[in-house]
Amino acid sequence: GSRSPSGGPLLTPSQSLDGAGGRRSGYITIGYRGSYTIGREAQADAKFRRVARITVCGKTALAKEVFGETLNESRDPDRPPERYTARYYLKFNFLEQAFDRLSEAGFRMAACSSTGTCAFGPEQGGPADDKIWTSYTEYVFCRD
């Protein structure tokens, strides 16, 4: 079989099956940073910025199986299939698309976590009536 430059075997998405012919179990974590602005009255029309980058953490073989060519591996090239990485990200920036791919591959959401903090407000030289908030959110998906 073919080997990667690091010496590990190369797997295609169709080869990432376990020895019994079923799908491998495992976890994939999706993360993203976001920001939004809420005015003085906390209006219902808060302004959200688009997601800049969706990060992927998990075993390389599982990430490649689910996301295929849309997985950007440039930050951790030649990672062996059975090793974990937290350095991949997706070439698209729509969370719904990532969730659809995970669901189609048999994953279910197991947990999620989000943090938020006021990063910039009038007292720090920001807009007079607005506060800019930043958040980091992670979704953990599993397949048994």
From TrEMBL:
Its main location: membrane. It is found in: Cell membrane; Cell projection, Neuron projection. GO terms for biological process: regulation of G protein-coupled receptor signaling pathway. Residues 26-143 form the KCTD8/12/16 H1 domain. Residues 1-22 are annotated as: Disordered. GO terms for cellular component: neuron projection; postsynaptic membrane; presynaptic membrane; receptor complex. Keywords: Cell membrane, Cell projection, Membrane, Phosphoprotein. Transmembrane segments: none annotated. Pfam families: H1_KCTD8_12_16. It comes from the Eukaryota. InterPro entries: H1_KCTD8_12_16. This is KCD12 protein.
